[in-house]
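> forwarded from #structure-qc
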């Protein structure tokens, strides 16, 4: 954790994977699980944008569901 904190202050966009690569380049044999656990323990969260896949875009056209209330009894 003594190596993770100063590096995170220098590069706050480093995720656990990138921090693992950095520590391995420095000569520390660590795994991503340990780095992720230590970053969570200290409360370090990268400043990357989170995906917003569930929010609809206002300019897209909304189509009505035409089969609502229609009983489907057979194909075709």
């Amino acid at each position: 954790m003594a190596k993770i904190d100063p590096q995170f202050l220098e590069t706050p966009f480093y995720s656990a994977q990138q921090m693992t690569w950095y520590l391995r380049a420095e000569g520390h044999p660590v795994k991503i699980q340990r780095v992720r656990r230590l970053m969570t323990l200290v409360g370090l969260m990268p400043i990357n944008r989170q995906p917003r896949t569930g929010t609809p875009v206002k300019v897209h056209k909304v189509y009505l569901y035409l089969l609502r209330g229609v009983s489907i009894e057979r194909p075709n």
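QC bot note: Residues 4-42 form one domain. The radius of gyration is 23 Å.
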